[in-house]
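Entry 12.
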Amino acid sequence: MHILMAQLNTVVGDFAGNMQAVLRTVNDAINEHDEPVVVFPELTLSGYPPEDLLLRPSLTLRVEECLQVLQRQLPPQAWVILGYPVRRDERLYNCAGVIHGGELVAEYHKQELPNYQVFDEKRYFAAGDMPSVLDIQGLRIGLSVCEDIWVDGPTAAAAEAGAQVLINLNASPFHRGKQEQRHELVARRAQRHTMPVIYVNQVGGQDELVFDGGSFATDASGHRKVQAPRFKESLCWCELQITNNTVVVMEGTQHEPLEDLAATWQALVLGVRDYVNKNGFPGVVLGLSGGIDSALTLAVAVDALGADRVEAVMMPFRYTSDMSIADAAEQSETLGVNHRVIGIEPIYEAFMAALADEFAGLAPDTTEENLQARCRGVLLMSISNKKGSLVLTTGNKSELAVGYSTLYGDMAGGFDVLKDVPKTLVYALSQYRNTLGPCIPERVIERPPSAELAPDQKDEDSLPPYDVLDRILELYVEQDYSADAIIAEGIDRAHVERAVRLVDLNEYKRRQAPIGVRITQRGFGRDRRYPITSAWRMGR
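Predicted 3D structure (tokens):
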């Protein structure tokens, strides 16, 4: 048996386009093998996650039209296994269907519906309660969908129903360390039930989620025999043979694993590329300040889109150092992007003149600092309006957590590349990117971070050191530690109480922030939904 793991980058809501991708893939497959088994990811026809598109009355019509076309046009000798949402007996299911010989010969309804982190499937789907095992070319093939493999019940039921091989369709999003978790989990399932597992995953960016592919085939002892690449579309073959009444997974393509920083970098690049391209933007524009966050954002944008689709704008003010101006120009020249310098001094002075009566008798404070950021935001959004480019904001997760950003200023834009990247990881990724080729000036990485909104300003004047802050945020935001529990880890009480208080107070800001690529197990977005109006304080 020749199984093609079709790791596709689908588009949510593009039923016709996704269907055509299925047809092209299967037609290519039969040119290599006469009776291929072609396996596609979870919800291939609708794309994943379709969210409230699943509630639209026309959903059923669109799905049924696609299934009818596929039954007519797919090569009859192929076995095609793909995911789609389907309504049966007035209930909506997350389904894996099998098409062969011009007919829909089997359907499996996903049993385990995830409802945590970024997943919300119980809002839409009913849970299936039966295994689906069918004979394909003399082998008993069991079907499952994504979360079904994370709980033993569905795999056990398939095995009890006589399955010799399990095929698992996935739309499993990336976070750091996720691929290792998948490998370990699938190996345990295969070992426990003495059954090979074919794991096929979606690839591509969808809003804040990135699907990293990495499809693989594991033999009955849990050893990976075939490994598809990550972060790109792939058609990867897996061959099964029966030897001494045992199903053997033959050695096949083995793509090398990615180290953590390399995987994180590719996730950011893919997330930006697909968000820009799938939404039809001709390019992007960002404010390049000479600091490390905007430098890293520019590097991601260029790797994602190419230098010709990226514009960098330096917007100096009286507090902007000559070093920042020079470093921004150097990086832009190194990467070959369109670089502009637009000073904000006259714009700022015009605002201050208009506000003179309102500000009379009041001492300068952060208002004047925020006004600088808002002048820059107006310029970038105006460029976006005129040229159609998407504004990339440059705030990192650490700043967003504690509100170290300006609404309608540096938060003004359509996509925040570093939204889920803590500051310490910003430094690590910057150093990693420089190993791939000249990119970010070394002194941008080495100098103390500063917003340069006031004389001699440093981030640590108002925040704990970033290594301390990021540890607090990891425990409080991602692991749900209370303030007391964090302090018990040996972290200074004053730092903890200040950081936790700022996180709690700034939910209103984060709610108004642009989306950005999710790379951790809990980002500020789909998987952290906290009330804005709340008396909850200090995380106790």
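Annotation: The chain has a mean pLDDT of 94. The first helix runs from residue 15 to 30.
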